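R.M. (postdoc): so does anyone remember the format we settled on? I'll just put the structure tokens first.
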């Protein structure tokens, strides 16, 4: 297995040359230079490195011995070890007496870069697999439960425990900030919480635990996103088969929520289940709600629509509504009469109020 790539070798060179103002070479397990401060030496065979690989220990090359070795200059060459095996060689160019005190430091730095790269690659691999599992769980395609349980189990996740889908959606212009947000969110998640990113660039969290844990985590996540992301929370699912439904509701609330209550931090199915379910029904006959179009057309200043919104929020309490709008009750009655005249629906009638609300929901989706 090749642990050292050209890119990683060059990263080792650049990092270690900042420690020691001397040229550094990195050779692979075949003794070929794959990273160097002297770029013209890349892809040359380094006989000094071959000696290190053969002996399994450091080799000091002085002026005399350098003359008899191909691709070598005076310096010290040390084995790079990983998982108790030699996987390459790092060489420091210079008079051995002047650089011997730094040799082990350079070797340690090279091995540290290699270890960090390996750990990062492992983390990224786990994140990719986790993201794949998440996308399969929320997909509308049939689930291969055995395969998913096996893969999730490999990462330490139990797919049989209850979870809730949470969707975070950033504005398109901030889509590049997704990875930063994901990295920050990971510190707020439990060891059974799964995360992934959809093809539409939405961040999905399959949150384990009860509602109180979810709300607590959501407040912190909302703070991390600096209120830039719209957050939707689906219904709780007792098993993996219900997560696609939970995801649909969460995604829907990221679209619907801001139109219902723009200043909310997040939108949960528990609070907005009626709106979410109504919008899943669909409405083929748009003429049935054309009365809401008439309201929008004639309400140029948005005064009547705002009055209707406050009327809904305050549950029809005329006193609270008038106070909220800073208007006299007579003015409020005039506006409600005007809404009735335009739409043929009186907000003071429960059934007609529901018709107005449903029409608003559907129009907000178009």
């Amino acid at each position: 297995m090749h642990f050292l790539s050209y890119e990683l070798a060059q990263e080792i060179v650049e990092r270690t040359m900042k420690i020691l103002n001397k040229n550094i070479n990195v050779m692979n397990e075949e003794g070929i230079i794959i990273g160097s401060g002297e770029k013209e030496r890349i892809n040359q065979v380094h006989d000094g490195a071959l000696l290190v690989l053969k002996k399994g220990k450091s080799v000091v090359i002085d002026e005399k011995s350098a003359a008899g070795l191909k691709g070598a200059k005076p310096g010290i060459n040390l084995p790079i070890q990983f998982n108790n095996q030699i996987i390459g060689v790092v060489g420091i160019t210079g008079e051995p007496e002047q650089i011997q005190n730094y040799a082990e430091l350079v070797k340690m730095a090279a091995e540290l870069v290699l270890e960090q790269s390996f750990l990062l690659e492992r983390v990224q691999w786990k994140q990719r697999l986790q993201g794949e599992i998440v996308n399969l769980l929320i997909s509308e395609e049939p689930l291969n439960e055995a395969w998913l349980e096996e893969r999730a189990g490999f990462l330490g996740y139990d797919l049989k425990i209850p979870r809730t889908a949470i969707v975070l959606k950033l504005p398109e212009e901030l889509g590049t900030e997704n990875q930063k947000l994901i990295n920050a969110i990971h510190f707020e998640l439990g060891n059974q919480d799964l995360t992934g990113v959809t093809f539409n660039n939405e961040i999905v969290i399959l949150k384990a635990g009860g509602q109180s844990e979810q709300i607590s985590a959501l407040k912190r996540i909302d703070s991390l996103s600096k209120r830039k992301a719209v957050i939707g929370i689906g219904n709780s699912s007792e098993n993996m088969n219900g997560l696609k439904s939970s995801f649909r509701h969460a995604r829907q609330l990221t679209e619907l929520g801001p139109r219902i209550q723009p200043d909310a931090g997040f939108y949960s199915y528990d609070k907005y289940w009626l709106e979410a379910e109504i919008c899943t029904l669909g409405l083929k006959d748009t003429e049935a709600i054309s009365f809401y179009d008439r309201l929008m057309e004639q309400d140029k200043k948005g005064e009547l629509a705002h009055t209707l919104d406050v009327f809904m929020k305050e549950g029809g309490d005329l006193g609270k509504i008038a106070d909220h709008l800073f208007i006299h009750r007579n003015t409020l009655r005039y506006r409600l009469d005007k809404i009735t005249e335009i739409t043929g629906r009186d907000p003071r009638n429960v059934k007609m109020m529901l018709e107005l609300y449903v029409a608003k929901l559907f129009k907000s989706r178009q």
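R.M.: ...and that's the designed sequence above, right after the tokens. Also worth knowing: The domain at 145-280 is CATH 3.30.70.270 (Alpha-Beta Plaits). Residues 96-138 form the longest helix (43 residues).
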